[in-house]
Amino acid sequence: MPTPSKKPFSAKKSTGISDGQADARVIASRVVAAVLASDQTLDTALELKSIKKSSVGKNSSTVLSSRDRAFVQALCYSVFRHYHRLDFLLKKLLTQPASKLPAPVRACLLLGLAQIDELETADHAAVNESVSATKKLGFSALSGMVNAVLRRFIRERDQLLSTVGSDEQARWEHPAWLLQQLQKDWPEVWQDIATANNQLPPLWLRANQRHNSRDQYVQRDPQLAAGVIKVTKPETALGLKKPLPIAEIPGFNDGDVSIQDISSQWICELVQPTAGCRLLDACAAPGGKLCALLERFELIATAVDISRPRLQKVKDSLHRLGLSAKCVSADATQLQKQFGDQSFDIIIIDAPCSGTGVIRRHPDIKISRNQRQVSEMVELQQRLLKGLWPMLKRGGRMVYSTCSVLRDENDRQIGRFLAQTKNAAEGVFELPVGQRLEHGWQVLPGQADSGNSDGDGFFYACIDKQQ
């Protein structure tokens, strides 16, 4: 499991706050408030509030620099990565329930605590800018309360932090239901999983072998080569110790490389198609697995996704990489009705899931997911398996994957399907990292092999249709 990453954006040596960073704090407050007050994801809120033009004051707007956008992202990710710890502390500091505060004010308080406790911002700067952001957001009447709460935390910090260990959610920075499920599914390593979920992940790239090998890509830029995480397999994977914005990744726009976690790149090791095989990617967006397969194999591919905006991302990736696939917006659980008697040699089901294997990349999952949603995901996964199975040719292979670590979505799901499907046989395989379960293969978040892979949590299973 990875060791904690160095905290970014430290302001201990320099306490000056630029105008851009001051605006960034206002935007970060709006992003956090949007996630807290609705079902909006952090990624969506960040795109709406900070990538596009963002209103900062009542009569002003600004376009943040790339550095300030990164600052907004760091602030917001810190709040949700450590939400249960910060919320525990906030409840100790308030004289009223935090839920009764306006969402933007609650966001300002959480961001202030995150800057002081997690991001090492100078105390006075964190307080002053949180108060300023509260006023700019239209809550001047509550700015004194924000000032008092944050200053009290600074005064009583050691005493307050000593109480964190008494609350399991605050200590492990996960919701109670998820901790209980991890303890049930992974009794020997649940603490490692929780710890890994709270770390900053590396950025993984996939070299486009149609353009260049991984080594050729790395050698083109000596500065890039110095910061690469080296792995043995997959042969296309390279990690960056210091993540870069997309615009700064060499060759990205030319299709030489794509962003894809190393765990997701294992898909190419699970199929061995002959040229001209028909492939269906039933839940294709955003397209990483599909494009990885098309870069490596000559396939006749069909990409399906229920969301037209997400399917457009698949089309954009195909265009950027110079690849070809038929793209269809449809409900994969009802696909046979639309496709008739069409059949495929390979069907990929990268199933909608809880996302509990990618919490370190999407920390808002900690507050957006619940047990009811997981049960709904399990039912949807069952319908996908059942609905797509008739479309697989005899002798064909179905690859089922999730970015989950919950066994109801993974090996137990596959076990149920195999027990109910007479002509289905499990395809046995082995990966260099992770472990075999009763059915399928699980990679846990941050789990590394001798090659230092450090990928996201991922599950794979292969199901072959008997002749």
What is the straight-line distance between the termini?
42 Å
Give the C-level CATH assignment of the largest domain: Alpha Beta
Low-confidence stretches: 1-19, 51-61
Largest sheet: 9 strands, mixed
Q: What brief labels describe this structure?
A:
Rossmann fold, 4-stranded antiparallel β-sheet, single chain, alpha/beta, 3 domains, N-utilizing Substance Protein B Homolog, Chain A, disordered N terminus, Alpha-Beta Plaits
Protein model, in words:
This protein is an alpha/beta fold. The chain folds into three domains: 19-172, N-utilizing Substance Protein B Homolog, Chain A (Orthogonal Bundle); 203-259, Sun protein, domain 3 (Alpha-Beta Plaits); 264-465, Rossmann fold. It is built from 19 helices and 15 strands. Strands 7, 8, 9, 10, 11, 12, 13, 14 and 15 form a nine-stranded mixed β-sheet that branches. A hairpin with a 4-residue loop joins strand 13 and strand 14. Helix 1 (19-37) packs across helix 5 (103-117) and helix 10 (176-185) packs across helix 11. The longest helix has 19 residues, at 19-37. It is globular.
Structure described in brief:
By secondary structure, the protein is α/β, with parallel strands linked by helices. Helix content is 42%, strand content 15%.
How are the elements arranged and paired?
Blueprint: H1 19-37, H2 42-51, E1 54-55, E2 61-62, H3 66-81, H4 83-93, H5 103-117, H6 123-136, H7 143-155, H8 157-161, H9 168-172, H10 176-185, H11 190-197, E3 203-207, H12 214-219, H13 222-226, E4 228-229, E5 237-240, E6 257-259, E7 277-281, H14 288-296, E8 299-305, H15 308-321, E9 326-329, H16 335-339, E10 344-350, H17 365-368, H18 371-388, E11 392-402, H19 411-420, E12 424-427, E13 435-436, E14 441-443, E15 458-465
Parallel strand pairs: 7-8, 7-10, 8-9, 10-11
Antiparallel strand pairs: 1-2, 3-5, 3-6, 4-5, 11-15, 12-15, 13-14, 14-15
